[in-house]
C-alpha cells in the first residue's frame, strides 16, 4: 500500500483526516503510566510513550488505554511497526524527552501519533526483523554506552547507557512520590563493575514497567541499563557521590534477556564481554553481596554537618 513518512505527516497533518500507513522503528520506550482517578470511570486508564523513527526523523507515538495491556510488552526497542488508521494530535508539551543515540536525527516535536481502540480503531502490525528491507531506510537503534572510567568526567544529568557485572544488589526500598501522598516509588541500589576502574557503577534502579527483571537482579548477572542519568552532588566532594539513576525511558536487561537486543552489536558491549572472559567466577563471587541496608549518598562524618 502507499506509505507516508513522519516528515510528510508534519507538513500535511492539518489538511487531512485520514493518513496513509506508516512504517517506523521504535527507538525508545517509556514506562507504563497509570492515570486512573476514582471519579473517572475508565476501564483501562493506561498510557505509554514510544519514540519512533523512519528515514525522515523521529516522533512520539502514544499508546492509549486497553491497547497498553495488549501491546506494551510486544513493542520493544528496535521493533519495526506498520501503523494504519492512527490519529495525529498536537504534542503534550510537558512530557520527558529521551536523549537520542544519534544526535544528528531530526526530531518532530509539534505533533505525536495517537493509537486508540476507537476514533479511529488503530491497526498495529509488528514486522519480523528478518522481513525488514534495507530500502525502507529505517534507522538502526544507536546507544551511548560509557565505561566506568569515563563516568567521573561526565556532567550532572548527562544521559548514557551502561553494561556491567553485578557485584551488589540492595533490598527493594520505597520513597514517597509526594510528601503526604500515599503513592510510593520502589527502587533498589545496585553495584556493577566493567573492569575499566577500581570503582563500580552505583545504580539507583527504580521499578520501571519490567517487574520480571527488577525482582530478579542478582550478583554475577550481566546487567544493561539504558537511558540512565548522571547524578553528582556538586556541593561536597563531587567524585565521591556520583551515581546513575533511571529515567522515564530507561530499560533494564539481565542475563537471559540479552539475546537479539540491538545493543549486542555495540563495540563497548563487545569489549565488556571480552573482559568477562578473563575473569575467574570464584574470585568475583567472593566479593558479591546481596541485601542489607545501604545508606547512599553517605551522611557526613560528623553530627554537626549532618
Automatic annotation (TrEMBL):
SUPFAM superfamilies, sorted: Nucleic acid-binding proteins
Transmembrane segment boundaries: none
GO terms, molecular function: single-stranded DNA binding
Organism: Jacana jacana (Wattled jacana)
Protein name: RADX protein
Domain of life: Eukaryota
Alphabetized InterPro entries for the sequence: NA-bd_OB-fold, RADX
Alphabetical list of PANTHER family matching this protein: RPA-RELATED PROTEIN RADX
